[in-house]
């Protein structure tokens, strides 16, 4: 069982996402972006190329300047989202990345550089990014302390 957040968890989700065609269509599809996921002090950089997530790696805070955007929620919120995805085999309407981003004053998708062209990739590839996280429904997740 993979612990969220960890390299193992992201690698297992990447494997599911990359090998299950159900995550490659219906509004998703080709996606070319490098983004990060920030969970408390843990940061992971992910590279999306075409229909695959080609890499995921733990990085440090300085690396946020190198990504197009990063996604940040409180650890408890990440847990609730991932549990919701597992329960419904995909996020329900209250727990999609898009809903979470639009429903709050403090957005989920952020940029340290302020480059709105790069940050806009979150909106352009939103459905594919959602499919990536929805793929976590197919793995067993434990949550770190």
Summarize the model shown.
This protein has six helices and seven strands; from the N terminus they run βαββββααβαααβ. The protein has 145 residues and is of the alpha/beta class.
What would you note in describing this structure?
By secondary structure, the chain is α/β, with parallel strands linked by helices. It contains six helices and seven strands; from the N terminus they run βαββββααβαααβ. It has helices at 7-19, 75-88, 97-102, 116-119, 121-124, 126-134, and strands spanning 2-4, 33-39, 42-49, 52-59, 69-73, 109-110, 141-143. The strands form two sheets. A five-stranded mixed β-sheet has the order 4-3-2-5-6. The chain is globular, with a radius of gyration of 14 Å. The protein starts with a strand and ends with a strand. The model has no long low-confidence stretch (mean pLDDT 94).
């Amino acid at each position: 069982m993979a612990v969220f957040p960890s390299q193992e968890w992201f690698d297992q989700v990447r494997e599911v996402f990359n090998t299950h065609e159900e995550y490659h269509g219906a509004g998703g599809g080709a996606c070319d972006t490098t983004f990060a996921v920030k969970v408390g002090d843990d940061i992971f950089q992910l590279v999306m190329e075409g229909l695959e997530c080609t890499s995921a790696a733990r990085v440090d805070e300085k690396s946020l300047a190198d990504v197009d955007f990063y996604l940040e929620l409180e650890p408890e919120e990440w847990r609730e989202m991932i549990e919701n995805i597992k329960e419904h085999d995909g996020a329900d309407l209250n727990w999609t990345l898009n809903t979470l981003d639009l429903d709050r004053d403090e957005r989920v998708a952020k940029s340290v550089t302020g480059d709105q062209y790069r940050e806009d990739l979150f909106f352009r590839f939103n459905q594919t990014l959602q499919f990536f996280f929805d793929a976590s429904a197919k793995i067993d997740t434990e949550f770190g302390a």
